[in-house]
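Renewal narrative, Specific Aim 1. Our central claim is that a sequence can be written position by position from structural information alone. The example that follows is taken directly from our test logs and has not been curated for this report. It begins with the structure tokens describing the chain, in the order in which they were read.
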């Protein structure tokens, strides 16, 4: 019986020794990796500035579009649903608006090859953001109205000769410019 206990003890010590050898090898390989010339990429200051600039645009876009979505609630048929549904729809639409806004900003950033325009936008930047937002919104409204994803109430004014609501188009005439303007003020107030 004692020999059985000693044998189990010897096996446990052998396993611990193998584990220790494995840990030591792992340690040596990680030291080799860390001391080699291959290093993980470092996040540069320019990347962080770009994220900050786009982040401020996202924040201002969320605040502006969120308020707009709430104000245009009577123009949609979902206004007759429960409060929980309306809150969900408005939050969902606001997040979608922010994604559209950031998508438009990324297109402008690619064309300008920098996010510096978010700190000092030109009239062309405002115009491009507005045009991209209007184009996407017009397409999205037509598709979603056609699919029945949402519907306008009888209060929604329509653009003459189209099924498009005036409120969502007015949103994209006004808010991209306002969002970029507010984000530019916030970005220029902070050091690079």
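The sequence written for that structure reads:
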């Amino acid at each position: 019986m004692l020999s059985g206990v000693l044998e189990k003890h010897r096996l446990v010590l052998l396993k611990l020794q193998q584990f220790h050898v494995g840990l030591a090898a792992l340690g040596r390989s990680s030291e080799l990796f860390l001391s080699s010339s291959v290093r993980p990429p470092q996040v540069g200051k320019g990347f962080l500035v770009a994220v900050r600039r786009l982040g401020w645009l996202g924040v201002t876009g969320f605040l502006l579009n969120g308020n707009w979505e709430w104000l245009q609630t009577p123009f949609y048929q979902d206004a007759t649903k429960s409060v929980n549904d309306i809150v969900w729809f408005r939050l969902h639409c606001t997040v979608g608006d922010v994604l559209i806004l950031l998508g438009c900003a990324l297109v402008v950033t690619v064309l300008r090859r920098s996010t510096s325009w978010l700190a000092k936008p030109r009239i062309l930047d405002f115009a491009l953001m507005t045009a991209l937002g209007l184009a996407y919104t017009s397409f999205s409204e037509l598709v979603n109205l056609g699919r029945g994803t949402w519907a306008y109430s009888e209060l929604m004014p329509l653009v003459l000769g189209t099924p498009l609501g005036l409120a969502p188009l007015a949103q994209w005439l006004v808010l991209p410019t306002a969002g970029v303007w507010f984000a530019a003020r916030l970005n220029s107030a902070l050091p690079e």
